[in-house]
Structures are given as C-alpha cells and as structure tokens.
Amino acid sequence: MNYLEKRILKDGIALNSDVLKVDSFLNHQVDPKLMEWIGDQFYQYFAEYEIDKVVTIESSGISPALFTAYFLNVPLLVLKKQNSVLQSNVYSTTVHSFTKGNDYNLTCSKDYIKEGENILIIDDFLANGEASLGACRIVEMANANVCGVGICIEKSYQPGREKLDNLELRVYSLARIESLEKGKIKILEKI
Ligand code: 5GP
Q: What's the rounded Cα separation, in Å, for the pair 9 and 184?
C-alpha cells in the first residue's frame, strides 16, 4: 500500500457511499510532505512525455498540481470556475460539479495555452469525470495535446475512469477506491 492509500485509510472519512472526505490532509488542511510525494509520483510517471505545462482546476487540485509542475520544471496553469462567460479572450466550457450538484463555467485565458503544447491534467478526485473532461475540452479548444491525466484519488466504482479510458486518455491514479459502503473505505487491490 502506498503513502497516499495509507493516509486515506488513516484519516479519510467515508461521508456516505459516494463522497470521501479528505479535508484534514488534501483539500482544506494540506500536508505538504504528502503533496511532495504525490508530485514526485506524477513526475516519475509522466516525465517521458515531454510535458510543457500542468493544468488543474481550482481549488483543490492546486496543491498536488503545483508539486507536479515543480518536479517537471514547467508552469502550472489553474483553470478558473467562473459564474459568467461574459469575458473576452477566454476558452470556456460548462462543467457539472460532483460535490455541489450545479453547473459552472470553467475558463482559461487564451494567453496561457498555446497550440501544440503537451499538457498534463492533474486533479484531486475522479468521480464522474466531468472536471477532467472539462479540462480536456479547454486544452482541445487551444489545439494543444492532453498527454495524460493524473488523479490523486479515483473512485473506481463511479463512471469517470471508464469515460476517460474510452477516450483513450492516459490516466494514472495514485489511489483507487473500490467502495465506501457503510463508512468503510476499501482500496482497490493492484493486479
Ligand atoms: P468529477 O468531475 O470527476 O465528477 O468530480 C471531480 C471533482 O469533484 C474533483 O475536482 C473534486 O473536487 C470533487 N470530488 C469528487 N468526488 C469527491 C469526493 O469523494 N470527495 C471530495 N472531497 N471531492 C470530490
């Protein structure tokens, strides 16, 4: 069992069968040593793909994405959740929020993704895949390439992983959750 998996079992809380609370170490209070380890894991996995930029979604993807960008020695670009699309010079796409249940506009200045760039998308969770797919759409609007998607915690029983696999995206998840039934966190065994 890896560092993140052990931490999830120690400090994660299954709020219900769909939502894992990790706000003591990942997305509210943040453990920098764990983020450093996560960044290094993504660096080791994706280093061979000549990544030009790491892209994440505000706000909970920022901590792991920043360490990943640091190790890859490339900039980090944070996609913004905006209420209004009435802005010029931005790429924008609508995303359905897993945790809030509403739609938001994901936006990015056209200045910061260039045609042909190799992009690595990093996010904290993969559930239905809406956030990651929204980020992919933004990258595609800029005619850049999604070289991979790095996920800290994938809930493998939800549809996101299959959606990304069906698009033949290169997905690397550091912890895969099999279920959160009755308050018990089950980690998917590696084969
Ligand atoms: P998706 O777009 O894949 O359905 O959901 C991914 C986004 O929803 C992530 O960026 C994350 O912020 C949030 N999310 C999804 N599932 C969980 C969860 O179990 N716990 C927490 N804390 N956030 C989640």
A: 9
Token pair belonging to 177: 């959750």
> From the CB of 60, is ligand 1 less than 6 Å away?
yes
In sign, the C-alpha dihedral spanning 86, 90, 96, 97 is negative
Pairing verdict, β 186-187 and 171-179:
antiparallel
pTM: 0.97
Q: Which residue's alpha carbon is nearest to atom 4 within ligand 1?
A: 128
Gap from CA of 78 to ligand 1 centroid (Å): 16
Kindly report, residue by residue over 81-131, the tens digit of the pLDDT: 986 656 789 999 999 999 999 999 999 999 999 999 999 999 999 999 999
- Partners of residue 165 on adjacent β-strands: none
